[in-house]
Write a structure and sequence with these properties.
Number of helices: 1
Order of helices and strands: EEEEEEEEEHEEEEEE
Structural class: mainly beta
Number of strands: 15
Strand content: over 45%
Radius of gyration: 17 Å
Strand order of the largest sheet: 5-6-8-9
Helix content: under 10%
Distance between the termini: 35 Å
């Protein structure tokens, strides 16, 4: 993943190069074969399956103290094509359960480092509510919700 390259002209943001990511396969001779790419977004956190076909893109840190309708939680991709997208509000039973900071909020529980977890073909997350959600990375469908 490569973030966008930009500068400011006064208050105007000028994008010199859009964000992108490329999945490569390393061949036996050490050369690289390009498998697929994504353009127009950057994420600090992506989960790539061992076959390099499927990927989960985590959303950014969202500003504010409560989720908004278009705040992306994560997205599922196959060969660089978007399969399914989930918003934070899709995953929480109570939007007020988020953990606000001074400038952002947290909806994902990462306290013990166990989640998010990718064990092909499953992707699991734990919300701040304590709910564990399991998804199929091959199609992005939610499989199960475990409520404590």
């Amino acid at each position: 993943m490569v973030p966008e390259k930009f500068h400011f002209d006064g208050r105007e943001k000028i994008i010199e190069q859009e964000a992108y990511g490329i999945a490569y396969q390393i061949e036996q001779d050490g050369s690289f074969q390009r498998l697929w790419s994504v353009h127009g977004w950057y994420s600090f956190s992506v989960y790539l399956t061992s076959d390099a076909v499927h990927m989960v893109r985590m959303g950014k840190w969202h500003r504010g103290h409560s989720p908004k309708p278009r705040d992306i939680a994560f997205e599922f991709y196959e060969n660089g094509k978007l399969l399914k997208q989930y918003f934070v509000l899709d995953l929480l039973q109570d939007p007020e359960s988020v953990r606000p900071s001074v400038s952002h909020y947290r909806w994902l529980d990462r306290r013990n480092g166990e989640y998010p977890k990718l064990e092909f073909p499953f992707f699991e997350i734990k919300t701040v509510e304590g709910n564990i959600l399991t998804f199929n990375v091959q199609n992005g469908e939610k499989i199960v919700r475990i409520v404590p």
